[in-house]
Amino acid sequence: MSARVRAPELRGRGWLNTGGRDLKLADLRGKIVIADFWTFCCINCLHVLDELRPLEEKYGDVLVVIGVHSPKFEHEKDADALAAAVERYGVHHPVLDDPELDMWQQYAARAWPTLSVIDPEGYVVATMAGEGHAEGLARLIDELVATHEAKGTLHRGDGPYVPPPAPETALRFPGKATLLPNGNLLVSDSARHSVVEVEPDGETPVRRIGSGERGRADGPAATATFSEPQGVCLLPTHVAEVAGYDLVVADTVNHLLRGVRLESGEVVTVAGSGRQWRAEVDDHAHDALAVDLSSPWDLAWYDDKLIIAMAGIHQLWWFDPIKRTAGMYAGTTVEALRDGPLAEAWMAQPSGLSVSVDGTRLWVADSESSAIRYVENGVLGTAVGQGLFDFGHVDGPAESALLQHPLGVCALPDGSVLIADTYNGAVRRFDPASNQVSTVADGLAEPSDLVLTPSGEVLVVESAAHRLTRLAPGALSAAGASTVDGPRHRTERKPTDLAAGEVTLDIVFTPAPGQKLDETYGPSTRLVVSASPPELLVEGAGTGTELSRRLVLNGEVTAGVLQVTAQAATCDADVEHAACHLTRQDWGVPVRVVDGAVTRLPLVLRGLDA
């Protein structure tokens, strides 16, 4: 906090949540400012929005949060799409539209999300990458308040946030839908924090379950509360009879699963502690109500379990409603695309699930890798998709086809699968028999789920249009499909040049103010390293407890990505009943192997690095 680095001026294409006013740093002088560099596809960025809400409430007269939207996907560069996302996720602070990442570069951000703290005199005093910084930020804000109140440079009062007009639609950013036994549909009305039963026409409301206010209260339909619910899944009848509820809702922002009794609409919490998962990876069964979850996004009954698309930690989990236990099913928490046995595969924000008609295959929309994956015979495979940074709208052979951040899938009776290709505004179809991808509908507003009715009709949850839409008759026939050869995109991140041979990886960790490393339950730190392709690393892959590691890079592999996961356990210092904390960060570091390049790679786990 001794460095005096003047914060770069805030400039972009436009502002949201300011009543049409352009803000300058001079307008914020006297306030503590947190610049939150985010992109609305990123689950870690959404976690940070939730972490910042209590700080905005507690320090509302001294703190101003500025969201700087620096997009990854092409769709996220669209100004209307950004405005929709700001409403969808309940962003109640000013947002600067930074479509060309100018501010991202000015503030030297390297990862989504990144937080820069600016003091009341306009200087950057801290930068933090990743999530999990709420407690450290609170301590830092307290220090800044004390310092600048004493100096007379802190100005209390209202900030520049101006709420937009309240919209009037029957649904608001619906996320997922499922058919009910009576022929109606149940839709997660995500931005209104509830689930809604509608008639088979997809339009006429029957009842609302949830008060519509953000919260996590169980109880009758009229008073129960959710927080941005997504996936909904009916339980098999024999399971529901024992469990005592008929369907399960993925209560995403609460990090919970909620059970709903259809007859009464009563809601009960069935899995999740309400805390976000920040633990060790294990293969054990846990008490469902004691285990921590992380942004459950969709649900499906498969392999005699309820499978959970755990978007927040890039895994699939399972939940047993009868035994009331839960645990990890697939993935390692590394965010990337790698096939293989379930316990070793890599995923990237799985957000949609559907089971084949014969029950043998679980289809997965792996949104951040713009991929369609599948689970079969204990192995995770990839049908369509090439990785975290390759996306577009291209049909044809599956190995060359491209999607853009798909959020939903729907298995069809013929063995093919429909894809809610969200950021392309399209419904796509993958046919395993021909290994071809085609487009069956486009011009849609962020489709996020698909439902096949008993009559063979397909309903699309058109999330950004706040409605359910029917596909045109014949859209699923060969004549109704089209072949699109649209743009191909690749998000290029500047690679780090490293020398062939020995390289030192250093994880720079500074505990938050008032905390210290905690070894009560064993080593306080953990480091996991792998590479894509694996041949990039001659030595250094694997898991250890030291935050520094000797790597040996293969000089015959010119480029690749180092996958690094680091975590550190801390506790409050000099406190009688010290609280425990776990800080965790994942990096995918693009590298080039270049003769004469540097031999040290430093990464900041928790930055107070002004």
TrEMBL record:
Record SUPFAM superfamilies: NHL repeat, Thioredoxin-like
InterPro entries xref list: 6-blade_b-propeller_TolB-like, NHL2_NHL_rpt_dom, NHL_repeat, Thioredoxin-like_fold, Thioredoxin-like_sf, Thioredoxin_domain
Domain Thioredoxin intervals: 1-146
Annotated segments matching region Disordered: 199-223
Keywords, in A-Z order: Repeat
Keyword Repeat carried by entry: yes
UniProt keyword Repeat, yes or no: yes
Composition bias type Basic and acidic residues, residue spans: 204-217
CDD domains according to UniProt: NHL-2_like
Listed name of the protein: NHL domain-containing thioredoxin family protein
Organism lineage string: Bacteria, Bacillati, Actinomycetota, Actinomycetes, Micromonosporales
